[in-house]
Design a protein that fits this description.
This protein is of the alpha/beta class and 441 residues long. The chain has three domains: 83 residues, Up-down Bundle (Four Helix Bundle (Hemerythrin (Met), subunit A)), CATH 1.20.120; 196 residues, P-loop containing nucleotide triphosphate hydrolases (Rossmann fold, 3-Layer(aba) Sandwich); 138 residues, Signal recognition particle, SRP54 subunit, M-domain (434 Repressor (Amino-terminal Domain)). It is built from 21 helices and eight strands. An eight-stranded mixed β-sheet has the order 3-2-4-1-5-6-7-8, sandwiched between helices. Strand 5, helix 9 and strand 6 form a beta-alpha-beta unit. Helix 3 packs across helix 4 and helix 4 packs across helix 11. It is flat, with a radius of gyration of 25 Å. The relative contact order is 0.10.
């Protein structure tokens, strides 16, 4: 989502020249470019001016030590200010009461119902027993969608198809939660295409009736400054506790993520980066600032990796690499594990340097599909002993997979490169993943 902003900020900072001391003269054009980049990214112009004024004030007169370039020092100042703008530190969702109640609100199309499912998946992993409540009495499809998500996740869903009062449904749902032993109730509410008095009155009454421990406002990041305006209007009426930004995997310019905390004075608590139930991340302002400046987010990468890789899997794979036994079956397993980590483009953006290097390159979750198709067309022996794949076998594999011989050659060439890289890493010490997670110690 932040590709253009990241590219423009990096370009602005890279142009910074000067030795020994940062002055108003040698940073004038850089400050101007940063402000323009923020405004182009849909950051409110007052917020953009405020941020750049603070950066300028902190930068002027700062001594540049010999080991640090003016650009590096300025990058740190910009990173610190972006982090401050987005809230400094993560803010936890409060889950108090038995059961704890989370009320989800927002406009239609923002992704509320999907978010309810994602929250259920997230808290199930934390040993919570959620009950999902369908309080959208206007859109039957919302209830059906919630039921399907519940089935997919193995989570109970409470609904009353003939009841038109959301407060009645919610109160009955609380009784059902206690009967089932659920310790978390997540309430999906009705949205509208625009803000109206009836919707606001209904959601206010629902909040007063439920007294939730947390009220989350769902914002479509693709909406840009409209998202901030909507958040302001909702907050005045509802006084919500936090924001969830959805659709960060899209082509939005990113201004909502940078502006909303400053304008509404409510923390962003989660970000949604894809359609899968696991594509929900706790929002860390410092990590997001690092990603915006193209420096990646290794901690988030490791957290995702730890969700799909067990210590035993890691140990087994390390041993296979060490013994030169890594084969094409293992490659497919690794691809499938990587896909479980979430959106490929999002994962790549977490790795320092790599995300920046691949800016503008189309990357999606189908990037490995042709590899899997080709490998599926091989015999078990060929998968386990790739060195036996001669010219005639390559032609047969190409024909069976619907790919060209060149595609098969490219796969085998890249497989050899991966094996050489893995051997080199093993020779030099614990694997990259082991170093990051501490599992190699």
């Amino acid at each position: 989502m932040f590709e253009n902003l990241s590219k423009n900020l990096t370009k602005a900072i890279k142009s910074l020249k000067g030795q020994g001391r940062i002055t108003e003269i040698n940073i004038a054009s850089t400050i101007k470019e940063i402000r323009r980049s923020l405004v182009q990214a849909d950051v409110h112009y007052k917020v953009a001016k405020q941020v750049t004024d603070v950066i300028k004030q902190k930068a002027i007169g700062t001594n540049v030590i010999s080991a640090v370039s003016p650009g590096q020092l300025f990058t740190k100042l910009v990173q610190d200010e972006l982090t401050f703008l987005m809230g400094m530190t993560r803010t936890e969702v409060r889950l108090t009461g038995n059961p704890a109640i989370v009320l989800v609100a927002g406009l239609q199309g923002a992704g509320k119902t999907t978010l309810v499912g994602k929250l259920a998946h997230y808290y199930t992993k934390k040993n919570k027993t959620p009950l999902l409540v369908a309080c959208d009495v206007y859109r039957p499809a919302a209830t059906e969608q919630l039921k399907k998500l519940g089935e997919q996740l193995g989570v109970s869903v409470y609904s009353e198809p003939d009841e038109k009062n959301p407060c009645t449904i919610a109160k009955n749902a609380l009784k059902e939660a206690k009967n089932q032993g659920a310790d978390l109730v997540i309430v999906d509410t009705a949205g509208r295409l625009a803000i109206d008095d009836m919707m606001m009155k209904e959601i206010r009454m629902l909040k007063e009736s439920l007294k939730p421990s947390e009220t989350l406002f769902v914002v479509d990041a693709m909406a840009g400054q409209d998202a901030v305006t909507t958040a302001q209007a909702f907050n005045e009426q509802l006084n919500f506790d936090g924001v969830v930004l959805t659709k960060l995997d899209g082509d939005a310019r990113g201004g909502a993520a940078l502006s909303i905390r400053s304008v509404v004075n409510k923390p962003i608590k989660f970000i949604s980066t894809g359609e899968k139930m696991q594509d929900l991340d706790v929002f860390h302002p410092d990590r997001m600032a690092s990603r915006i400046l193209g420096m990646g987010d290794v901690i988030s990468f490791v957290e995702r990796a730890e969700q799909v890789y067990t210590e035993e899997q890691h140990r087994h794979m390390t041993q296979k690499i060490k013994n030169n036994q890594f084969n094409l079956e293992d490659l497919v397993r690794q691809i499938q594990q990587i896909k479980k980590m979430g959106n490929i483009k999002e994962i790549v953006s977490l790795l320092p340097g790599i995300g920046k290097a691949l800016q503008g390159v189309p990357i999606d979750n189908d990037v490995f599909k042709s590899y899997e198709v080709i490998i599926d067309s091989m015999t078990p022996k060929e998968k386990r002993q790739p060195h036996i794949i001669d010219r005639s076998r390559r032609e047969r594999i190409a024909l069976g997979s619907g790919k060209s011989v060149q595609d098969v050659n490219q796969l085998l060439k890249q497989f050899d490169a991966v094996c050489k890289m893995m051997k080199k890493v093993q020779k030099n010490g614990p694997s990259f993943f082991a170093n990051l997670t501490g599992k190699g110690r």
